[in-house]
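Handout, section B. The chain below has 88 residues.
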Amino acid sequence: MKRFLLATTALIFLSSSVGFADIQSPPGAKYNRARKLSRGMANIIYGITELPQTVQRYNRAEGPGSLIPGVIDGGKRSVVRLGFGAYE
């Protein structure tokens, strides 16, 4: 009985590992032109949203008196994100 259980467990384990290997994507599929273009477009379109998000994050963390640092950091993050979008 122990041999049968061991053989069945080994068979299930081997068949599941072979099945898992079939669903993996090839390495070159991660960073193709379409993905890079869509990421660049998203950075350009949604880059301006970094400003209010960062201000809100600063207000939650440090209180309502932190408007100026939130605007400065949010503006910097927006410009950087727009730049990366234009680059991509």
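Note. DSSP finds four helices and no strands in the chain. Compare this with the example in section A.
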